[in-house]
Amino acid sequence: MKKIFVLAVSLIGILSFAQEEKTDSLEYNPIQIKEVLVVAQRKKMFADKAVYTFDKEALEKARYAKDLLNTLPELQVDPISNSIQSIKGGTTLLLINGIEATDLQIRAVKPQDVVRVEYFDIPPARYANRADQIVNLITRNPENGYVYGADLTGALTTGFINGSAYANITKGKNNFGLEYNIYLRDYKDRTSMNIYDYNLNNVHYRTENQRNEYFGYTDQSILLRYTNSDSDKYAFQAKFDMNINTGFAYANGTSLFYQNSLLTDHSTYKHSNSNYSKPTLDLYYSRKLGSKDELSLNLVGSMYTTKSLDETREWETTSGTEQYNYLTNLEADQKGIVGEIAHTHSFEKAKLNSGYRISNNSIDNNLVNLNGPSNNKVNYLEQYMYSEYSGKAKKLSYRLGVGLTNVHNKNEDTKTDTWTFTPKLVLGYELAKNQNLRFTSSYKPTSPWNSALSKNVMQVVENITQEGNPYLSIQKSFGNNLIYSFNSKYFDLNTNAFYHYTKDPINQLYLQNIINGNVEGYKLTYENAQNSQRYGVQITGSIKPFGTDILTLKVNVAPATERFKTKDGRILKNDYIGNYFVISSVYKNFNINYQFNIPYYTLGGALLYTQENMSHAFASYKYNNWTFTTGMYWVGMPSTYKQKTMDKQYVDYSRVGKIWDNKSMFVLGLSFDFATGKKTNINRKLENQTAGAATF
Q1: At the N or C end, where does the chain have fewer CB atoms within 10 A?
Q2: Beta sheet of 506-515, edge-to-edge order
Q3: Over pLDDT 90: what percentage of the chain?
Q4: Contact 549, 475 (CB under 8 A)
Q5: Is the pLDDT of residue 506 over 60?
Q6: In terms of CATH architecture, what is 2-678?
Q7: Residue 164 and residue 248: Cα distance in Å, rounded?
Q8: Containing H/E element for 286?
Q9: Residue 96's pLDDT is what?
Q10: CA geometry: angle 575, 577, 581, nearest 5 deg
Q11: Mean of all residue pLDDT scores within the chain
Q12: Greater confidence, 653 or 367?
């Protein structure tokens, strides 16, 4: 495998000397960026991305750069998180001149300073395992100045607050930045109905569990940033980020417990809480080596402790006889470190990017659960080597990438050490000035997540537990996409015919809980299935009936089929129509939009899940540096979440959860932004982060 990788890299290096045209990419050249480009053709297509420029009217309407991103056909502000997301779903990574950016950093960029926006719906190799889409905001040269602002949105009758504040000062080569975010939820009216139906040792059981829950969380982050850069020579950046998270839940409920024809009334109680403070230090350095080469280094480290508690009780209502009393107490010490080195070489008519990334996450668990106290240490190590060549010949553009991924997971029970060759091919052909045909093919592994590997055992209801599987192996996915793109004054649409095949997919399902050779109940756990398939057609983009922003419809319609072959050979099939719609209107300083979807089930292992329902209406008005917002979440309905098992499982399970606090939740928002000059944006080539808090 290593020989194949070296050979592939060598071939790409040889081929790169024979290309005809230099490609456009994530690379940022401050010499070329002198002023805002205003061109008649607003969108230009490449094999892996679209490049957008903005006219004078669009720049004047926007309050800050984030408003410009919101005008792109496949991007939209998520009203819950107030962040830019793709209407296709998945993970969207935001960059400013090649450096990963927060929402607040984007707000700090004035619309007039935006040169172009690069939207990568096919991420470059270095980001392939981290994001589904990349948005790179290209700005003009940095200048001295300062910028600051604040934003607050809150509900009048419900515990719901989104708040933020930021400040940046630039002086010469130096920039200092400060950011603060807070997300607070305090919901007193969440209900859930959980039904479990199964046979155990020739006895039929059925549990109908109704709960009323009070829950909430507070998520805060404080970020300090220092940048020193000379755009022609080097860039250095140090970031310190402190993320503070607390959460809680209290639930009381009743349960109808059937044992054959015998019915017993039960009462239930559930309490959980968790908290952690995660400090992260991020160091980045890049230097140009002559006119054609650049070397970039990135080191990210964090060390913190996660504390969580989960208590569940059930008893007969009349007699008070306890059915079970379960307590989980977890204290997990986590240490994470990520290092990456990358090199870029620009040939006269092509570009070659190569790099090496290593990440390690070590977790020391002190756990008390059904099995008593225990100490368990796990370590997740991943290495990723990649090389990618990009070029263009007349109307044909292409990207050839090769990679080698090593996953080395170790716990007390097992050790996994696998090497996977990860090639990628991207081809694009310009059919006409406004039409483009693209093909992508890729192969990549995905390591099991913490909770899937966890040995923790949790009592769900009587006779049923939930636990992980430390013997899981990685899943390997092979994806193919054929994309036709068309854009005009009235339409900007992408049609994607896709087929994805996954070997050894991680499957969550109910299995027998066998203890000492006897079936003592059932457990919700994980296993590697044989394979899974997903295929269909996805149409995304925007429609403007009048050719202006006075009326815009953004659409995502995706009829698809999912097939799953379990470890024991059962075939699970699910058909669905993915969808998401946004209707918006922009007139002068007014903005109105309505976002909605029609909920649908998707297959997660052997369980079906609905997407979160949406029905959100908002209006905003911009006055000088101020913006006033009002709106309503989940108009006429509570947020609703559904789950159910597929056929032929040991347990027939269904769940319906609703947050009634969210129903027709009226909110008001106020934000202020002021800027003179602009902050320093560096051309950062590497972006990494350590693993998130462990969940068990």
Answers
A1: N
A2: 457-461, 464-467, 518-528, 506-515
A3: 53
A4: no
A5: yes
A6: Beta Barrel (2.40)
A7: 23
A8: strand 262-289
A9: 80
A10: 165
A11: 86
A12: 653
Domain boundaries, the chain: 2-678
300 residue type, one letter:
V
Tokens read off for 15:
């081929």
- Ranking 201-205, 261-265, 451-455, 464-468 by mean pLDDT, the lowest is 451-455
pLDDT recorded at residue 694: 54
d(CA 557, CA 282): 39
Judged by average pLDDT, the poorest of 47-51, 494-498, 518-522 is 47-51
- Taking the C-alpha atoms of residue 129 and residue 337, their distance in angstroms, rounded to an integer, is 17
**Model confidence, pTM:** 0.83
Closest among 123, 122, 135, 126 to 93, alpha carbons compared: 135
pLDDT score, position 682: 47
How far, CA to CA in Å, does 23 sit from each of 98, 247, 436? 16, 47, 17
- Residue 638 sits at φ, ψ, to 5 deg, of -80, 160
Residue 557: φ, ψ to 5°: -125, 125
Q: Give long-range contacts, CB 8 A cutoff, 24+ apart: 410-413.
A: 410/378, 410/379, 410/381, 411/376, 411/377, 411/378, 411/379, 411/453, 411/455, 411/470, 412/376, 412/377, 412/470, 413/455, 413/470, 413/471
- What CA–CA distance (Å, rounded) separates 65 from 72? 12
Q: How does strand 133-139 pair with strand 92-96?
A: parallel
Task: State the Cα angle at 275 between 269 and 280, rounded to 5°.
Answer: 160
Q: What is the largest CA-CA distance in the chain?
A: 84
DSSP state of 566: -
Query: Is pLDDT of 687 > 80?
Result: no
Q: Using CA atoms, how far apart are residues 419 and 382, in angstroms rounded to an integer?
A: 10
Q: Is 428 exposed, middle or buried (0-12, 13-18, 19+ CB in 10 A)?
A: buried
Q: How many CB atoms lie within 10 A of CB 220?
A: 16
DSSP secondary-structure letter at 21? B
Average pLDDT of the segment spanning 602-610: 89
Collect contacts of 202-208 with beta carbons under 8 A, ≥24 apart.
Answer: 203/259, 203/260, 204/258, 204/259, 204/260, 205/257, 205/258, 205/259, 205/462, 205/463, 206/256, 206/257, 206/258, 207/255, 207/256, 207/257, 207/258, 207/461, 207/462, 208/255, 208/256
Q: Are 347 and 16 in contact (CB under 8 A)?
A: yes
| Nearest-angstrom CA–CA distance, 192 and 657 | 4
Output the pLDDT for position 11.
35
- Residue 250 in contact with residue 256, Cβ under 8 Å? no
